[in-house]
Amino acid sequence: MDKIIFGRFMPGDTYVHKMDPRAKLIFTFLFIFIVFLANNWLTYSILIGLTLFVMLLSRIKPIYLINGLKPVIFLLIFTFFLHLFFTKEGDLLFEWGILQIYEGGLRQGIYISIRFAVLVIMTSFLTLTTSPIAITDGIEILLNPLKKIKVPVHELALMMSISLRFIPTLMDETDKIMKAQMARGSDLTTGPIKERIKAVVPLLVPLFVSAFKRAEDLATAMEVRGYRGGEGRTRYRQLAWRTRDTMAILFLLLVAGVLVYYRGM
Amino acid sequence: MDIKLQQVGFSYAAGTPFEKRALYEVDFKIPTGTYQAIIGHTGSGKSTVLQHFNALLKPTVGEVAIGEFNIKASEKKPKNIKEMRQHVGIVFQFPEHQLFEETVLKDIMFGPINFGVGEDEAKRRAEQLIEQVGLPTSILNKSPFDLSGGQMRRVAIAGVLAMKPDVIVLDEPTAGLDPKGQKEMMDMFYRLHKEEGLTTILVTHSMEDAARYADDIIIMHDGTNVLQGEPRQIFADHLALKKYRLEPPRIVRFQEKVEQLLGKALPKVCLTEEELAQTIADVLKERAGIDG
Amino acid sequence: MSEILALQQVTFAYPSDETEVRNAVDNVSFSITEGEWIAIVGHNGSGKSTIAKLMNGLLYPNEGNVRFMNQLLNDDNLWDIRSQMGMVFQNPDNQFVGATVQDDVAFALENNGVLHDDMVKRVQQALAQVKMQDFLDHEPHHLSGGQKQRVAIAGALALYPKLLILDEATSMLDPQGRNEVLQTIQQLREETGLTVISITHDLEEAILADRLLFMNNGQKFAEGTPDEIFALGDTLLDLGLDLPFAMKLSRLLQEKGVPLIGLNMTEEELVNDLWISNFNK
Predict the structure, then answer these.
(1) What is the predicted pLDDT for the residue at C19?
(2) What mean pLDDT value characterizes chain A?
(3) The pLDDT value given to residue A1
């Protein structure tokens, strides 16, 4: 579990860290659309520039971003080659047997790879610079209007924050039970697939039993502390939208404008 | 089975930016048949050491030897791990959390069957062990989840003993039990230790249990072993204990108060209430003899 | 001193498929007055945790009633009464709701609609009371068991409760954690005179209380000061408890023929007794 670095919150005190989570969520959401505006060398360069700019501003080490790309690297390479081999536009660059590579294919392959990479990196900025609980808060408040159409926004946000809170606890628990069963000769890592699936039962049953016990305890503790749904509840965490947040969104819209202007060229 | 740790070091998440050093230069030996206590405060590395006795963790430096089995940091994939695990049973903290089968019988048989013991033999062992851990045989056909917490723990312990290990490692085995349950549990392990000729390793922060049962004590502090010796010797060294943020057992602290009162040291460091009472009685008698 | 909480002839049985239903709590009565520290002791399964659940309406008695601040506990005043009663449970992990220390302390305040500015003040104050003010943004899995329990106590204190109930709050902690929690409680008692009910099988914890309630098989077996209860001697051992260290040693010394005046509860008493009975003649 310690190897999962992708998207892990790295506390800091930069412009990006200090932004309101709502602003970061809106920024990321808008960015997903803006990425598709790029269609030539110049506009793609602007996208890369924007990504590097956010990286410098948030002081996130490039190594974490590269690590973030690792899980999707296969997909990235696959799409690159897909375009490389099957887009038959422009001049023929290279031919070897049935393998033909066109200039257009190479260009498309590179474009799509950049698009993919900046998308993954930008979303990982969100999770790298914002604590999970702040993201939950942001989502809850942004979705608040949906309460009018009876979407249980508060309950969903509470569920999300409790899940986040219990992930490390359950990870430890999994590790502990796995080791206890391994000490009893159960083998989860080697042997034929069928055996391995069977070996999961001694892990899953205790995990479920314990998760239910925890849920029950937690429900009792919440009840005793006066929890009875979202009504009449006040919020301890307050979010504050500042000038820097408005600036960030305006900046992104400006970039979008620039992209629209240059995309035809 | 002698257990030997040579210059063992261990890091969690080794090779990532989150690497966390948990052990360094751990070096000690536990001879066959010893009742060994390993003590240290929370975070001293004692639970990490414990997992090395069974190759649940592989050292990042150094070497662990369990009898003739060796786990070296230099070897990528140590051989015979499973065979080795059969010789070392670990009773984890709150072992009742590892129960999963439909019946107590099946759960106790789980370990032996994994190690290739035949069904009949495994069943025979379960029937014998359930009594050894102080439960009625009628419980064998019940679901472990219908039992009380204390009974579940005993079933889990029977499940570990059913593998017929030569070494048994106990991690805070009495946590959460009431005083009577604690005493019964510790007495049971001591009896098994004697009767079965086991090597017992008790990992604990209870100084009282270490004083009462152990032949030898290892003290862990900040990821390494810092002190090893017989209980009397260890508990006489108050300064060292203090340095490692440990308190001597209550009985030893009380003996000091009595010594202040008497104005002289008692002939030995006492480890149990019975022993201290007897020693005080002897000293007072002797004194009365001189006075009279 | 006025009465805070009272149980009157309370009986409770858990629903069961078996024909012979055993009462988990059987005709238990007691009352606790403001400023008292009362410990409910008994072996595992003696009914002491069921009593805790009856005290704040997690369970309702089959017979008898529960009275808090002269009101009978019922569905109408349940939430009001709960807001005046803090409760800390056994497992430090399973009662930590918030993502960080300060969120967890604020949880009960949010539930009771306390305004934001007041909330911030109360969170700070409560955390200072348990000496956890430097851990505001810590996540639970980076805290020790003792620290988590202190946060749970702060969560209860933030509501300014009339009564704090500790339901085996120290039984899963290491000695260090146990000391931290007990010291916190003692200090709170000195500073604020908070009324405390601790449900425990730890005798060193029970000895700190003003009064003990000794439970066995769902019934109140005995009630009295620690002196009175521990004078029961062997009966305690038979019913799954132990004797405090000094007392056990006193008994052993007497068996070995050392003259002593009485059974001593604390080490100081025993040392004094040894001195008076053997040297000061």
Answers:
(1) 58
(2) 88
(3) 38
For residue B19, is it within any domain?
no
Q: How many domains does chain B have?
A: 2
pLDDT digits (tens, 9 = 90+) for C8-19: 999 999 887 665
**Residue A211, in any domain of the structure:** yes
Tell me, yes or no, whether A171 and A253 share the same domain.
Answer: no
The total number of structural domains that make up chain A: 2
pLDDT digits (tens, 9 = 90+) for A77-91: 998 888 888 888 888
Q: B161 and B178 share a domain? A: yes
Across the interface, whether the CB atoms of B82 and A183 are under 8 A apart is answered: no
Across the A/C interface, how many CB contacts are shorter than 8 Å? 91
Q: Which of residues 157-216 of C touch B (CB under 8 A)?
A: 171-172, 174-177, 201, 203
ipTM attached to this prediction:
0.90
Residues of chain C positioned with their CB less than 8 A from the CB of A213 = 94
Report the alpha-carbon distance of residue B168 to residue B187 in Å, rounded: 15
H helix or E strand, kind and range, residue C79: helix C78-82
Predicted TM-score (pTM) of this structure: 0.87
**C265: which DSSP letter?**
S
E strand or H helix at C108, and its extent? helix C101-111
Q: Residue A229 falls within a domain, yes or no?
A: no
Residues of chain A predicted below pLDDT 70: 1-7, 265
Q: B160, A183: Cβ pair inside 8 Å?
A: yes
Q: Which amino acid is at B186?
A: M
C239 close to C216: Cβ distance less than 8 angstroms: yes
Q: Which domain holds residue A255?
A: 15-130+240-263
Contacts of A123 (CB under 8 A, 6+ apart): A28
Helix (H, G, I), strand (E, B) or coil at A98: coil
Residues A121 and A34 in one domain: yes
Burial of B197-212, coded b for 16+ CB within 10 Å and e otherwise, reads ebbbbbbbbbbbbbbb
Work out the percent of chain C whose per-residue pLDDT is above 70: 97
Q: pLDDT value at position C45?
A: 80
